[in-house]
Design goal:
14 strands, 3-stranded mixed beta sheet, binds uridine-5'-diphosphate-4-deoxy-4-fluoro-alpha-D-galactose, 7-stranded parallel beta sheet, alpha/beta, Rossmann fold, binds nicotinamide-adenine-dinucleotide
């Protein structure tokens, strides 16, 4: 049997492909390469010594998904495929709703046609909206502040309704906090298009000299040093969370939701200082105005994942900073020159 990773050539998908292939599962990737490179999957094959088939196809296209399900004995799916840039989703909401919702719906239809009933979905801490009570627990009220977030919350709702209608389904919704870092080999990592939106790739590109300096968005939040606090999680710990979720889906029916975070919040200044200390490199920065839509603090209560998935994070902030830099330093242009 095989696990299909939609969007598996992307940042989290490629690390998960590596993790679950190393655990002995057969992996098939379907990706339209709109935000990724086939080189990522070539390198995962190289690192694992296993052939990872890559189907270049679109998850909103039934025929493309049919190709995957007809060619391989797929009994589980991890659904990463989606557009993820918050700002772009505000400017192009229809593109986000069309792509992210259609992908979820089409996938569910093709899975049903092939009798595949186990799914793990990439949701996001963004579905907690602007709640101020921390740490965030899975049963807190939900709401979003941008179209990207709504596509995640609406997809969650679709999966919940489908799970209610068909009691044979196993669906695991994973709410990721802030994934950072890279595989320790430095061969795969995060390769954003254009100027990065997220903190860690921005820091890495400043350290490498591709960008002049970091803008820290606000130092007047009600946090210990005034800068925003987030729950950064090493992408390999996150990948292991998917392995645990696949096991859970094999053993349980129904729909369940889990936070995947460390439970610890670090500020932007914590991240900059840790990066400088671990990698012995300067990260010039300036304080800039707050970024619209940002919240002060966001971190998970990961207890449910500890208890039911028997998963926890092992990697430290030092590991995150070292591995992010190792990838950036060895691949200054990401996969582009490969
Ligand atoms: P990514 O952009 O690196 O990976 C997503 C992949 O999906 C890309 O390879 C892209 O080419 C592919 N894709 C997009 N639309 C597709 C479609 N219609 N058909 C086929 N492939 C398609 O992003 P990532 O950081 O690896 O995120 C993976 C998932 O996790 C996404 O759904 C994202 O929304 C979610 N998520 C990410 C974060 C984060 O901070 N990185 C946080 C929470 C949730
Ligand atoms: N930040 C800066 N400068 C930058 C980039 C970010 O100061 O150049 C700050 C932000 O203001 C925030 C923190 O760094 O305080 C983290 O910002 P990111 O953009 O890295 O991450 P966010 O928490 O804003 O959002 C991320 C993903 C979302 C996802 C959310 C929760 O981008 O898609 O985590 O999972 F929804």
């Amino acid at each position: 049997m095989a696990v299909l990773l939609t969007g598996g050539a992307g940042y989290i998908g490629s690390h998960t492909a590596l993790c679950i292939a190393n655990a002995g599962l057969d992996v098939v990737v379907l990706d339209n390469l709109s935000n990724s490179s086939p080189e990522a999957i070539r390198r995962v094959s190289e690192l694992t010594g296993k052939e990872i088939p890559l189907i270049i196809g679109d998850c909103t296209n039934k025929d493309d998904l049919e190709k995957a399900f007809s060619a391989y004995p797929i009994d589980q799916v991890v659904h990463f495929a989606g557009l993820k840039a918050v700002g772009e989703s505000v400017a192009k909401p229809l593109m986000y709703y069309r792509n992210n919702l259609d992908a979820s719906l089409t996938l569910l239809e093709v899975m049903a046609a092939h009798g595949c009933n186990q799914l793990v979905f990439s949701s996001s801490a963004t579905v907690y909206g602007t709640i101020q009570e921390m740490p965030l627990k899975e049963n807190f009220p939900l709401g979003c502040t941008n179209p990207y977030g709504w596509t995640k919350l609406m997809s969650e709702q679709i999966f919940r309704d489908v799970g209610k209608a068909d009691l044979g389904l196993s669906i695991v919704l994973l709410r990721y906090f802030n994934p950072v870092g890279a595989h320790e080999s430095g061969r795969i990592g995060e390769d954003p298009n254009g100027i990065p939106n997220n903190l860690m790739p921005f820091i890495c590109q400043v350290a490498k000299g591709r960008l002049e300096r970091l803008s820290i968005f606000g130092n007047d939040y009600p946090t210990k040093d005034g800068t925003g606090v987030r729950d950064y999680i090493h992408v390999m710990d996150l990948a292991e969370g998917h392995l645990a979720a696949l096991k859970y889906a094999r053993e349980h029916r129904g729909v369940e939701v889990f936070n995947l975070g460390t439970g610890v919040g670090y500020s932007v200044l914590d991240m900059v200082h840790a990066f400088e200390e671990v990698n012995h490199i300067q990260v010039p920065y300036r304080i800039a105005p707050r970024r619209p839509g940002d919240i002060a603090t966001c971190y998970a209560d990961p207890t449910k994942a500890h208890d039911l998935l028997h998963w926890q994070t092992h990697r430290t902030l030092t590991d995150m900073c070292r591995d992010a830099w190792n990838w950036q330093n060895n691949n200054p242009m990401g996969y582009r020159n490969a």
